[in-house]
């Protein structure tokens, strides 16, 4: 059931639905599309990975490889369980503090500009958690939330840039220096759209069972010394993010998913992912909730020995 137009908008804003994301007969959460400030500062900070845009501040800041908001939601006992990061040993995970996952890679202006994407990924993750927690309550209820697909994609690109700039990618035990292409900054900061076929794919992993879990994984894939994409496991749901147009798109999953529904009995909870254009998958991705399970997800067995 969709919310009434006079109730708070399900995108998380404080506005009423009719003045926010309900556009006549269509739901649309307007994405954050950054553009260059005018006039530009003309300054290039040597440690800011966006310095090619000639619009830096003089102050360098600490940027989390992953969003601080997201890490806060993953955190338990002041640590975050992380596996699959580029520098970690295979089949292992680490318990890391949030403050250990930072690097001085952005000036103040370029760091603060990306905040809307951090907010979006945190809202996305919390929606999944809240849906699951309510299913465990005595009287679960129907729910409906909205996120902007373009913001989610740009958060993924922001995360990729942070790992490249801080040289966190490793190959055969050594740091791998990958190119931070100018197009990445143009997409993040100057409103350039993603090229055809780039971006977000939702991977159903052969319709296997998925266990929601408070964790994060980041699995890069390279070819000929070039980064081609990354698999993100967010709460153990798999999203492939591609930095090129694939030869076989279906292999990577559903491109630009528009709706993920979690269902248990007659109760449905929908996470609507809106896109500005019509280049999105119009069918619903449905997860039937069959129960609860304690401990680490079964698919972690191929990763971890600890």
From TrEMBL:
Protein name (record): SEC-C domain-containing protein
Domain of life, per lineage: Bacteria
Species, as recorded: Fulvivirga marina
């Amino acid at each position: 059931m969709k919310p009434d137009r006079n109730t708070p908008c399900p995108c998380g804003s404080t506005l009423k639905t009719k003045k926010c994301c309900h556009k006549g007969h269509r739901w649309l959460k307007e994405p954050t599309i950054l553009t260059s400030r005018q006039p530009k500062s003309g300054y290039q900070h040597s440690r800011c990975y966006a310095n090619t845009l000639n619009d830096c501040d003089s102050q360098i800041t600490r940027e989390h490889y992953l969003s601080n908001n997201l890490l806060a939601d993953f955190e338990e006992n002041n640590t975050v369980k992380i596996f699959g990061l580029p520098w970690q040993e295979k089949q292992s995970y680490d318990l890391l503090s949030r403050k250990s996952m930072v690097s001085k890679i952005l000036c103040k202006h370029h760091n603060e500009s990306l905040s809307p994407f951090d907010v979006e990924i945190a809202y996305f993750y919390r929606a999944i958690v809240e849906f699951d927690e309510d299913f465990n309550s005595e009287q679960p209820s129907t729910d409906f939330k909205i996120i902007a697909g373009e913001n989610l994609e740009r958060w993924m690109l922001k995360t990729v840039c942070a790992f490249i700039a801080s040289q966190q990618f490793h190959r055969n035990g050594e740091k791998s220096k990958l190119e931070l292409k100018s197009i990445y900054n143009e997409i993040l900061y100057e409103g350039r759209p993603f090229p055809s076929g780039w971006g977000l794919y939702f991977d159903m992993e052969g319709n296997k069972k998925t266990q929601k879990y408070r964790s994060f994984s980041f699995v890069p894939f390279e070819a000929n010394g070039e980064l081609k994409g990354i698999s993100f496991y967010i709460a153990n749901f798999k999203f492939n993010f591609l930095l090129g147009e694939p030869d076989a798109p279906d292999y990577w999953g559903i491109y630009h998913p528009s709706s993920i529904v979690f269902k248990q009995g007659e109760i449905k909870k929908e996470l609507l992912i809106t896109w500005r254009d019509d280049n999105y998958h119009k069918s619903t991705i449905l997860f039937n909730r069959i129960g609860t399970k304690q401990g680490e997800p079964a698919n972690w067995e191929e990763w971890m020995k600890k």
